[in-house]
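Why does residue order matter? Because the sequence determines the fold. Keep that principle in mind as you read this record.
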Amino acid sequence: MVSDSELLLEVTDLKKYFPVQKGVFRKVVGHIKAVDGVSFGIKEGETLGLVGESGCGKTTVGRMIMGAYRPTGGSIWFQPPNGATRVDLAAIEPSKMKPLRRHIQMVFQDPFASLNPRMTVREILAEPLVVNRIARGRDLEDRVRSLIDLVGLKIQHLNRYPHAFSGGQRQRISIARALALYPRLLVADEPTSALDVSVQAQIVNLALEIQEQLGLAYLFISHDLGLIRHISQRIVLMYVGRVVEYAPAQSLFDRPRHPYTEALMSNVPSTRPELVGRKIILKGDPADPMNVPSGCPFHPRCLYAQQLCSQVVPPLLEVDAGHLVACHFSGSLNLTGCDALGCAI
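Structure:
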């Protein structure tokens, strides 16, 4: 595990429960446990991949870090610059959050919906600088031009509106806007899922180049294992609001320790024709976050489940250096890694 002193962001036992209300008087009849005890850390300049099926809670984690959702429980410790004292974003008052927002920015999934269609690119990029009183006049124009250049677009693009751009170009504009305040952490929520494959590669390579130039840390949220392997140093795998595996990227793909991880890897396109047909087809649907199964939430779909799995929730334990897994039988299972499956990632 990474020591606390090395972490830019430390998420501990984070929870978010959404109340379910029914009837005329809106009586609370239950809770959707979107995030239920998630913990991880991100070092400065590192990329942490957050992976899982749709509905597993990964986007909710990102939004709690940004302050869009107030956590039900847990802490989000962030290290401001210049040696300032760490602050808990989960407990801080909204009025005190504003000075910290410039250090944590977000890139959204849909690049068209996240851009104001009535503003030119110049206005979109200038707005965060003006609102935070960082630049004006000639300095403002110079900063806007440097941002558009940083993401590989041209100066003449500044006077156009979002509808005049392709999806990939709009996402570059979104990235430029997120970088306007020179943040320390960038939360990227499925930033390439709405783009063509060739454009996805351009955006990912751009993200890597910017990270090298500016020393940014990324929380990269995705369901695409190939993308996550390419960009991440460490990976957190979520299932129904909980972490099931947390490991360095190479360790995770060489030797997965959780059956859910193995199943996801088996469904990545293979480069070896003789291995076609070895896909693990999970039975049933993902668990309902309002009615999570007893014991291990994955046990109704697990090929290796035993009686203990339905009775006791497995703790997240370290099985190798920096490799944590929540599975009662991870030590006795001989799971197949991505290389053996011929994954094209």
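Residues 259-341 form one domain.
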